Amino acid sequence: MKKVKIFALIAAIVTATLLFIFLNSLSHRGEVEKTGVYVAVQNIPADTLIDQTMIKLSRLPNEAVITESISEASLVIGKVAKSEIFTGEQILQSKLITAGNADEAELSYVIQPGMRAITIAVDGVTSVGYMITPGNHVDLIAQYNENNVAETKLLVENVTVLAIDSSLSKKDELVDKDTTYSTMTLQVTPQQAMDISYYEFTGELCAVLRSPLDDKKASIRSGQ
């Protein structure tokens, strides 16, 4: 009889254990794994700088999370919406850009806020033998006539080259591998843009390549 009771007790314990495991599995079956991603709490128009009030962290089922969705606020706040983002929409990396980032594909997004882009005509002589590339820094010398006297003037210093012809990056290569170009686009202040436009119209501009390690202003007077 004792053996029967022992076997019955063991069977009862096993049954209870299996029942507990089964019931526990049922209780967890309804739980869905979720991931926190940022979504828009309002419509965000294109070219809008995104701040904290425009987004929130939302926990969504893993199956509903899009591959390019973002789970870190620092990767969203301060970025610019490349296209409109609608209320409730997951914030995707492909819809964000960083203003002033030289790696962006569109010139308008490469320009730093408050600055302007201006294009000047160049040739082999005025562009250091076609060796200036996007990302370089240059000075501009204005060469002009005043009262029939040839003059030179250091017009602007340490301005960034945004593009060569239509190439925004050193990685861009012309199809025919031609190293010559005819235009250079610079990032300047509005006042510098006015000065450059004036002296290009009344004279000629020459770009002077700077070392990337040199950001000091030169003490140079106008020459004749």
Note down, in words, how this protein is organized:
- The chain is built from three helices and nine strands, in the order H-E-E-E-E-H-E-E-E-E-H-E.
- The termini are far apart.
- The strands form three sheets. A five-stranded antiparallel sheet has the order 5-8-7-6-9.
- It folds into two domains: 34-97, Type Iii Antifreeze Protein Isoform Hplc 12 (Alpha-Beta Complex); 114-209, no CATH class.
- The model has no long low-confidence stretch (mean pLDDT 83).
- 17% of the residues are buried.
- The chain is elongated.
- The longest helix has 28 residues, at 2-29.
- With 224 residues, the chain is of the alpha+beta class.
- Taken as a percent bin, the fraction of beta residues is 25-35%
Percent helix range: 10-25%
Along the chain, the helix and strand elements come as HEEEEHEEEEHE
Q: Number of domains in the coordinates?
A: 2
Would you tell me the overall average pLDDT?
Answer: 83
Q: pLDDT below 50 for ≥5 consecutive residues: which ranges?
A: none
Number of helices: 3
Question: Structural class of the secondary structure composition?
Answer: alpha+beta
Specify the biggest β-sheet: 5 strands, antiparallel
Distance between the termini: 123 Å
Strand order of the largest sheet: 5-8-7-6-9
What is the 3D form?
A: elongated
Number of strands: 9
